[in-house]
Structure formats: structure tokens, C-alpha cells
Write a structure and sequence with these properties.
Layout (H helix, E strand, L loop, with lengths): L2 E4 L4 E5 L3 E8 L3 E9 L50 E5 L9 E9 L16 E9 L4 E9 L5 E10 L5 E13 L4 E7 L7 E6 L3 E6 L12 E6 L9 E7 L4 E7 L5 E7 L6 E3 L4 E3 L2 E7 L2 H16 L13 E3 L1 H4 L5 H14 L3 E4 L27 H11 L3 E6 L3 E2 L4 H5 L19 E2 L5 H16 L5 E4 L21 H19 L4 E4 L9 H4 L4 E3 L6 H11 L8 E6 L12 H9 L2 E5 L7 H16 L1 H6 L1 E4 L9 E6 L3 E7 L11 E2 L9 E4 L5 E3 H6 L2 E2 L9 E8 L2
Parallel strand pairs: 21-22, 21-30, 22-23, 23-26, 26-27, 27-28, 28-29, 29-30
Antiparallel strand pairs: 1-2, 2-3, 3-4, 5-10, 6-7, 7-8, 8-9, 9-19, 9-20, 10-17, 10-18, 11-12, 11-14, 13-16, 14-15, 15-20, 16-17, 24-25, 31-32, 32-33, 33-38, 34-37, 35-36, 35-38
Helix pairs in contact: 6-7, 9-10, 10-11
The structure holds (2R,3S,4R,5S)-2-(hydroxymethyl)piperidine-3,4,5-triol (DGJ).
Length: about 725
């Protein structure tokens, strides 16, 4: 049984072959965190709670001075008394009171996993779920702590439901999704931070006393901070050591924090960012929080990644894309920007087809008066000056050539210079009396308005009903300002940021369910909203607007902590690179793009005959190994160093591929043997180029000699087939 309740000792034990998670009930009232880590055969409370009469402690039972919620390891906070650490929730009643007194009431264990209404969440029909009910009898409030344990993965998902069973309105000022207290603080905190064109940089530093917090209040999860926290043992590396990963399935404002408290424990708390949140709970209503994934690895960061990759590919992305191969695409953006004609596109697509490319994506610039980025967002009518015969005409030509056709949209945006803005200025986010702030000379549509959601569903449905569009790139190029909703009363204005996200999820859910055959690619100026919430609807994301292959090796390295290569759009672009101006070899650009969800984004007609020949060979190589690259296991064989050198391994039952990049060339190149570490030790691997056969164990442990490499950013690959 994955979840048991020990009635005598009063604890819940959630377990599978790899992990155990134990929750206690103290004094029949308080929910404590007792253990999270490698599987325990059984549990008899060897790690007793510590009871000491401490200075400044407050005690729920006054004469029991050794019992205090200031110090107990908890599964949720208290409010207004007893626990002073960061809190997971906060209510405010209509008198302004901010005190609650939740105590344990009952529990339920059930098979399967509830999907969260209106929110993306993990699937898990075969799993088991525990719900712990806490009640505040004074105000008739209920809080349900929900846990699902995965049968075959070291994963627990958590969320919280807050209910108002009383007769009065109450406000939720903070509605956290999870909190837990780990009984130590000697961890390294691992986070993914960055900026536009520099996403997912891994930061690792020892925890220190006090609160260490990551947050977004930009309306999206943001490229600045990823909604993820890792806590690693100091010795943990890619292959060894323990690490906990906490990942938030949400695409809006979030907070993820770790607090090292006075006696050396660490509190983890994750949820919607309370700075930009409040929710009115009318009598009889409830609020469901987004979900958090808790992942534990005892075998380093690679194992943590393996679990995330498998979990998201199997239990999160739309089911129809789980096993479906993804096409090689040519995206029109960097090759044309806004400047193209119908004839240009048809010629480019034809050339792409001849090279073996399978999908042509028409990016920005095809609609309204869109000659640059200052106009027309919202006017999703084809620009007849550029494309006199319309979108369907181009799609038909491509389909006749057995090529797929994709189209770019930025559905959530509106340009001030647009017909839509003339007609519906009230649809853009705004707050009375204040000017609207523009970003990239555009405003944001208010997706918290039902009318706007319906409008977007209609626009996309009309395009997709023609059955001529096989792929949509869903872009989002600025963050939210003047977040308000003129239809909501004053006391619900702070709901708008979350309502925006719910509106977005509604539109995405309706459209992707209606058109399951259409491949959606998520984008927010690259990885600005690359989060598990978005991948629940769109199985791949444009990883970064930075297409410089050297930078990409770092960005893809960072995201690979959480997402498999198939989820990371990666394109071969021109050299010198448009963002960095750096020159890199075509082969290196290919090998890095091939290590993601592969495509091209360059001026295809300007490539030399030699380059076109090389591109054709790349494409045929990729097609031969597509199953390995898209569905194989992916491992990082070396940690990213200052020279940006990387080594990646793809592996499945029949073949394996190593991609090595030297990054920036170094003087006095040291002798290096690269160990493949993760091949099957007892299998034999035949190197495709040389025909030489090696055992998996020698490749894993003795390693491959890295040859002398001159010049910056030279990549090579080695491919093997399993012979036995
Ligand atoms: C930002 C995206 O990330 C780019 O790939 C491109 O689609 C532009 N927007 C178009 O405006």
C-alpha cells in the first residue's frame, strides 16, 4: 500500500520503492512533517521530535512549556499565533481579523488523483491520494492538504484547498500550495535565474539563516526566476548525492522560498505570490491552489532530471503528444523578420522541403499592418499586401508538397495602433485614471474578462477549423502592468493576476482540446514562460530568443534540469549570430540544436551550396536518430564550467549518442577521458564511424579520450549502436 495510516502511532506513511514521506499528528491536532527521503521499510519514530522549554516559545497548552509550534516541523503554518516562520496561508475576515486556529479533523485516502479544475495538473490515475482535513471551528473554515504519491517515480504532488463553510465572507490574502520543514539546513540552494536571452542559469549557494526567496510579480512565471527550488547536499553532483526538487505547476506570479530558522531547520514554501493576490471566499465557496511537484533523488542531479523528464512527458503534456514524433521545422523569423512576400515564403519553403524539412512556420509579420512591432496585434486578418492570396493559399501549396504549415500568434496582446484597440480599448489591462504602460509598444489583453477569452477562442478556432494549420507558435512578449478588471468590485481587484492566468488556461484548454492534432509551441520572447503550467497544454517551448549556439549550450543545460530535450525548441541560425554577433561552425550549431527540439531559423536562400549540402546531411542524420533524440534518456556528463564546455549523452535500448562541445578553447589542454557513465555496462557498443566495438563498462568507467580541439566552440559527436 503506498499510503498507510498508523492509527496507534498517529502518522501517515506515503511510500513507493524509492521514497517515503511521513506526516505525523501531534496532540490529535497539529500536522507535523516527520520524514522525506529514501524509502523506509517501516517507521517507528526513531527520529523523535525534540521537546525543550525554549526562550520566547509560545505554547498552545500553557503548562506544557516544552511543546511549541514555534519549533515543530510542520506541514502547514499557523496564522497569528504560535508559528513565526514564513506562512503558507493568510485569511482576513470582514472585521479585519487575521487569526485562524486550524486543527486536524479527519483524513481520506483514495485511488487515483483529482485533476484540478481550471488549472494544469499532473495525471495519475494509478496513484494514491491522501487528503488531510483541518478545520478552524471558530470561523468554520476548512483546509485540505492534498498529497499524491507516484507509484513508479520518486514524486509526490501537493496542493491545498481552502474552504469557507461559515456564514460570512472571508478573504484569502495568501493561498500557498505547500509548506514543509526539513530538520536540517546544511543544504545548497539551487535555482534557475536569468533574463531575456539568458534564461535558466543555474545558481547554487549554501543556505544561510533567514529567508531566501525567489518570486515573480510580472504576471508570468518569468525568465528572471524559474518557479523551482532545489535543495542539495553539499557533496551532490550530477551523478551522486541527494537532492530535493520542488517545482510549481503555475504560469503566473509565484513565490518559492526557503527559510533557515533559529534551531537549524529549513522551511520550504511555494505558492502564488501573495503580493499580487487576494481571493474573496463567499460562504460555501472554496479556493484550489496550483500544484507543486516534490521530487527526490539520491543519485545526483541527473537522476532528479530523469524523474522530471519522465513525469512531465508521461503525466503532464497533452496525452496525444507523449509518443508522437516532432517535425523538423524552418521558422521564418530570423531569416525574414517582418520583411517578406508570398513568393519569398513559397520559395523558402520549397527549398526547405528539398533539404528534408517537414514544417514551415510563418512567424510574426503576416497580419494587419504589421511592418514592424509597433502595430496590429489583435488584428488577426492576413496582410494582403504581403500575402495577397491569404494564409490558406500558402498552407495549400505546402500541403501539396507534403509539408506541414505553422503560424505565429501573440494572442494575449493588443497594439494601440490596431482596429481591435479602436473597437475595444476596454479589453486591454487598465486601472481607472492611470495611464497604460506599454512594452514593445503593446498592451496586454485582459484575459480575466470572459468576453476576451471567448474572442480569443473564436479567433483561434476560426483559423484552426480550416484544418490547414498544423502548428501554432503562441508568443507573449511583455509583462503585465495596470492589472485591474472594471467588471469586478473593489474587494476583488487583487484577484485579477490569478484570474488572468485562469483565463489563459481556459483559452488554452479549450483550443488545444478542440484541435488535438495541432502542435502548439509555447513562447514568451523565448523561455519567458517556460514552466510546467504551460507545458500541460503545449508540449514544446521556444527555449530562448538567443540562438547563439554557445549560449544555447548553457541555456539548454540549465533547462535540462527540469525538461527533456523534446520540450526545448532549438534552431540552427545564421553565423554571425543575430543576438551576439558570434561566429560558430555550422556543425556546432547543428549539434546543439539537435540536442533540443530541432529546427532551422536562418536566411535559407543565402546559404552557400556547401552549407546547403551540409544542412541536408544534418537533416538526414537527425531523421535516422530522431527516436533516440526525441524520446531517449538524456544525461549531462559534465558540469558546466567557465569555458562553457558540455557533454551530453542520449541513450535508448538500441543506440547511444554523445555530443561534446569544447566551449571556449583553453591553452595547455589537459588530458581528458570522458566517461559515459550511463550506458549499459554489460552491453557492447559499436561505434558507427569506425566500426570499433567497446563494452558499455569501459565507455562508462575508462572513458573516451577527448582529442585536441583548436578554436572556440567546436563540437563533435560519437554514435554507437548496441550490438548485444
Ligand atoms: C519573440 C519570439 O521569441 C521570437 O521567436 C519571434 O517570434 C518574435 N517574438 C516575433 O515578434
Amino acid at each position: 500500500m503506498p499510503i498507510i495510516f498508523d492509527a496507534e502511532q498517529k502518522f501517515f506513511h506515503l511510500s513507493n520503492n524509492e521514497i517515503s514521506y511521513i506526516i505525523g499528528i501531534e496532540k490529535g491536532k497539529y500536522i507535523t512533517h516527520r520524514y522525506f527521503g529514501p524509502n523506509l521499510e517501516c517507521y517507528h519514530q526513531v527520529n523523535q521530535l525534540q521537546y525543550i522549554d525554549r526562550g520566547f516559545a509560545t505554547n498552545p497548552i500553557s503548562e506544557e512549556r516544552t511543546f511549541s509550534l514555534n519549533t515543530l516541523p510542520l506541514e502547514t503554518s499557523t496564522q497569528g499565533s504560535l508559528d513565526y516562520r514564513v506562512s503558507n496561508y493568510q485569511f482576513r475576515n470582514i472585521e479585519g481579523g487575521r487569526i485562524t486556529n486550524f486543527v486536524y479533523d479527519r483524513f481520506e485516502i483514495s485511488k487515483g488523483k483529482q485533476r484540478l479544475e481550471g488549472l494544469p495538473s499532473l495525471r495519475g490515475d494509478m496513484e494514491q491520494t491522501l487528503e488531510i482535513y483541518l478545520v478552524d471551528h471558530i470561523q468554520s473554515l476548512e483546509m485540505i492538504l492534498r498529497y499524491t504519491i507516484y507509484d513508479t517515480l520518486p514524486v509526490i504532488s501537493r496542493n491545498v484547498e481552502y474552504r469557507n463553510d461559515g456564514a460570512q465572507v472571508i478573504y484569502l490574502e495568501n493561498a500557498g500550495s505547500m509548506l514543509l520543514d526539513l530538520p536540517r539546513c546544511d543544504f545548497d540552494l539551487v535555482t534557475l535565474n536569468g533574463a531575456h536571452t539568458n534564461e535558466a542559469t543555474i545558481h547554487r549557494q549554501p543556505l544561510h539563516p533567514g529567508i531566501q526567496k525567489l518570486a515573480s510579480s510580472r504576471g508570468t512565471s518569468s525568465p528572471q526566476h524559474h518557479p523551482f527550488l532545489g535543495l542539495a547536499d553539499r557533496c551532490t553532483n550530477e551523478d551522486q548525492g541527494c537532492v530535493y526538487g520542488f517545482h510549481f505547476i503555475y504560469s503566473g506570479n509565484f513565490v518559492a522560498q526557503a527559510e533557515v530558522e533559529q534551531y537549524g531547520s529549513t522551511r520550504i514554501q511555494i505558492g502564488i505570490n501573495p503580493e499580487t493576490f487576494e481571493w474573496k471566499l463567499s460562504p460555501g465557496s472554496h479556493f484550489q491552489t496550483p500544484e507543486v511537484v516534490l521530487n527526490f533523488s539520491a543519485r545526483g542531479f541527473n537522476q532528479l532530471s530523469q524523474t522530471f523528464h519522465k513525469l512531465y512527458q508521461t503525466n503532464l503534456i497533452p496525452e496525444q503528444w507523449r509518443e508522437k514524433e516532432r517535425p523538423i521545422l524552418l521558422n521564418s523569423w530570423e531569416g525574414n523578420y517582418f520583411d517578406f512576400t508570398e513568393a519569398d515564403l513559397i520559395r523558402q519553403a520549397q527549398l526547405a522541403k528539398d533539404l528534408g524539412i517537414e514544417l514551415f512556420v510563418l512567424d510574426d509579420g503576416w497580419f494587419g499592418q504589421r511592418e514592424d512591432d509597433t502595430t496590429s496585434l489583435g488584428d488577426w486578418e492576413v496582410n494582403r499586401e504581403k500575402l495577397p492570396n491569404g494564409i490558406e493559399y500558402i498552407a495549400d501549396i505546402l500541403h501539396q508538397q507534403k509539408m506541414k504549415f505553422g503560424l505565429w500568434f501573440e494572442p494575449e496582446m493588443i497594439s494601440v495602433k490596431s482596429q481591435l484597440f479602436e473597437k475595444h480599448p476596454e479589453w486591454s489591462l487598465c486601472v481607472p485614471s492611470y495611464p497604460q504602460t506599454q512594452g514593445r509598444q503593446q498592451l496586454v489583453l485582459n484575459l480575466s474578462l470572459f468576453e476576451v477569452q471567448e474572442y480569443l477562442i473564436k479567433v483561434l478556432t476560426d483559423y484552426l477549423s480550416s484544418k490547414k494549420i498544423d502548428y501554432i507558435k503562441w508568443d507573449m512578449n511583455r509583462h503585465l502592468t495596470e492589472v485591474g478588471n472594471f467588471l469586478l468590485p473593489d474587494d476583488q481587484q487583487k484577484e485579477v493576476s490569478h484570474r488572468y492566468v485562469l483565463g489563459l488556461y481556459r483559452v488554452l484548454s479549450e483550443v488545444t482540446k478542440k484541435f488535438p492534432q495541432v502542435l502548439f509551441e509555447n513562447c514568451s520572447s523565448g523561455g519567458g514562460r517556460f514552466d510546467p503550467g504551460m507545458i500541460a497544454y503545449m508540449p514544446q517551448t521556444w527555449t530562448s530568443d538567443n540562438t547563439d549556439a554557445l549560449c544555447r549550450s548553457k541555456i539548454q543545460y540549465g533547462y535540462s534540469y527540469l525538461y527533456p530535450p523534446i520540450m526545448m525548441g532549438a534552431h540552427v541560425s545564421d553565423s554571425p549570430n543575430h543576438q551576439l554577433g558570434r561566429n560558430t561552425p555550422l556543425e556546432s550549431r547543428f549539434l546543439i540544436a539537435m540536442s533540443g527540439n530541432f529546427g532551422y531559423e536562418l536566411a535559407i536562400e543565402k546559404q552557400s551550396p556547401e552549407e546547403l549540402k551540409e544542412i541536408k546531411e544534418q537533416i538526414s542524420f537527425y531523421k535516422k536518430h530522431r527516436r533516440l533524440l526525441q524520446f531517449g534518456q538524456f544525461y549531462r556528463l559534465k558540469e558546466l564550467d567557465a569555458a562553457y564546455s558540455t557533454a551530453w549523452l542520449f541513450k535508448n535500448e538500441t543506440e547511444a549518442l554523445l555530443v561534446y562541445s569544447n566551449g571556449l578553447a583553453q591553452p595547455a589542454q589537459p588530458v581528458q577521458y570522458l566517461k559515459t557513465k550511463y550506458l549499459e555496462g554489460t552491453s557492447l557498443y559499436k561505434e558507427t564511424r569506425t566500426g570499433k566495438v567497446y563494452s558499455g563498462s569501459e565507455l562508462n568507467h575508462a572513458g573516451i579520450l577527448i582529442p585536441r580541439i583548436k578554436g572556440d566552440f567546436n563540437c563533435f559527436y560519437i554514435h554507437w549502436t548496441v550490438t548485444e
